[in-house]
Amino acid sequence: MRRVTNRDDELTQISGWTDDDAGVLYAAAVLEELELIELVERLNELNQNTMLSIGAGEASNRLHEFWDQGYKRMPAARRANVYDSLFGEPFAGLLDTLSTAIAEQGDVAAAADALRAQLAARSDETTAKAAAELRGVLGEIGAVLSDLELRSAYGADDMWQLVENIQREHGGDADVQAIRTRAVEGALIVHRLAQLCEGAVSR
Description:
mainly alpha, 12 helices
């Protein structure tokens, strides 16, 4: 599958998929493992306590604005329920089958059809509302964590290295790059299901 080329733009691009609820929700679901919402809120707390080496510019404003909108965001437990309803079994197996078909040039169309039918059967008004909210959240997270001033404060070349460095500082051990790859690549596959159902595979 063709990849998003700029790592700092990945979440912004995914948040722009206004015609695709499942792809957005898949990325958000996988990225819950990194607790990015909580991470940005923690950065704002550090900044408010003058424990972050950034000025009073755009990075600081974005952190505060993200924190200020927290009361409007869907709680973690409700997000988890949405993810479980859409991506519970047999979703994982169907996605693996499709990924294998793409990699091995197998019957991509049949595998894509099966996955698309599964997602259609599980999609409803609740998932649509959740996707609408999480588009905004992913875009905001991408904008905050890709900010050059904030990345420079942690010596990070891109937003994912920033997450790694923050986690390391706070004792986290999640494999940031593996989770990022799974979220982005899986979301891209889901996003292109209509093409894949016709057997089109982008390289």
